[in-house]
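Quick one:
INPUT:
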C-alpha cells in the first residue's frame, strides 16, 4: 500500500490534545484531555490505514503520550489515596 501525501487531520488533532493533556496535568493537575487524545489517536490510525494517509507517527506519539499521562495520573492517585489513608487523625 502506497502512503499518501496528505497528513491525517485527526492525527494532528490527537497530538495537539496529548500535548494539552501534558500541559494541563503539569500546570493544573487536569488530565482529562488524555482520554480524548487516546480516542482520537485510535480513530486516526484507523483512518490512516483506510485512506492511505500520512501521520501514523503522530498518532502513535499521541497514543503513547495519552496513555502515559493516564498511567501517571492513575499511579499518583493510588499513591496519594494510600498515603492519606494511613495517616493518623
Amino acid at each position: 500500500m502506497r502512503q499518501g501525501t496528505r497528513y491525517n487531520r485527526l492525527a494532528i488533532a490527537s497530538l495537539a490534545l496529548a500535548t494539552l493533556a501534558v500541559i494541563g496535568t503539569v500546570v493544573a493537575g487536569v488530565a482529562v484531555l488524555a482520554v480524548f487524545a487516546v480516542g482520537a489517536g485510535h480513530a486516526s490510525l484507523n483512518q490512516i490505514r483506510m485512506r492511505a494517509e500520512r501521520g501514523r507517527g503522530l498518532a502513535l506519539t499521541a497514543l503513547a503520550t495519552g496513555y502515559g499521562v493516564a498511567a501517571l495520573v492513575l499511579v499518583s492517585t493510588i499513591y496519594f489515596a494510600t498515603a492519606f489513608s494511613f495517616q493518623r487523625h
